[in-house]
Amino acid sequence: MTRERELLDRAIGVQPPLGLDFDAIEATGRRVARRRVRAASAVVVATVAVIILSGTTLLTRSKVPELTPGGAPVTVEPIARDSAYCYRTADISSTERDQHISVGLVDGDTAAASIEICATIWTSNRYLWSPGGPRSSPPPLVACILNSRAYNLDGGEGPGSVGVFPGDETVCSRLGMANADID
C-alpha cells in the first residue's frame, strides 16, 4: 500500500510535508504582539494626554474671575502670559475700530511688559488714540485680567490675558475685572 500511495501522490502532485521552524514562527508572533502592545500603549498615552490638556484648559478658563462691576478690587496673576491687549478707552464692550489691539513679544513675558508696550503705542499714536498727535507721555495706564465679557478677543483666548486700559487702579473693578499682578 505504501507504493500505491506514493504513486498516487506523485500523480496528483502532492508535495512531501514541509519541515516547520516553530521557533521562528513563535518569534514572529512575539514581535507582532509586542508591536500591538506598543501601539495600544501609545494610543492610551495620547488619549490620557488629550484628556489632561482638555481638563487643564477648562480649569484654567474657570479661574478667570468674573466680578461684579464696581465691586471690591481683586488682584490676580494673569493666566496667559504670552499675549496682552492695549485698549484705547476703559470699555470692554466697545465695537469701535482699533478699540483694542492684541500685542505680544516673540520671546519673553508679554504680560509683564504689557504696560510698557501699551505706553509705546500711546506715545507713538500709531492707532490715533491721542487726539493731538504723538505725545511725550502716555495717559496713566492700568493692567486688568480680561474676562469673558471683553468684546472680540482673538480666537476666544483673551480671557485670562492682560488688558491695559487708560485710567487708575479703580478701572478694573469698575469694569468687573481683577487687577493684574504683573510684577
The residue fraction in helices comes out at 25-40%
> Looking across the biggest beta sheet, what order are the strands in?
1-6-4-5-2-3
* Sequence stretches where pLDDT stays below 50 over 5 or more residues: none
**Intertermini distance:** 100 Å
Task: Please write the string of helix (H) and strand (E) elements.
Answer: HHEEEHEEHE
Radius of gyration computed on alpha carbons: 34 Å
Q: Output the structural class.
A: alpha/beta
| Residue-averaged pLDDT | 81
* Beta-strand percent range: 5-15%
Largest sheet features = 6 strands, mixed
Count of runs of 4 or more consecutive helical residues: 4
Q: How many DSSP E strands? A: 6
Q: What overall form do the CA principal axes indicate? A: rod-shaped
Task: Work out the count of structural domains.
Answer: 2
What does this entry look like structurally?
The chain is an alpha/beta fold and 183 residues long. It has two domains: 1-62; 75-180, no CATH class. 39% of the residues lie in helices and 13% in strands. The protein has four helices and six strands. The longest helix has 41 residues, at 22-62. It is rod-shaped. The chain crosses the membrane at residues 39-59. Keywords: Membrane, Transmembrane, Transmembrane helix.
Summarize the structure.
By secondary structure, this protein is an alpha/beta fold. It has four helices and six strands.
Secondary structure elements and pairings:
Layout: H1 2-12, H2 22-62, E1 75-76, E2 84-87, E3 100-103, H3 110-124, E4 141-145, E5 162-166, H4 171-174, E6 178-180
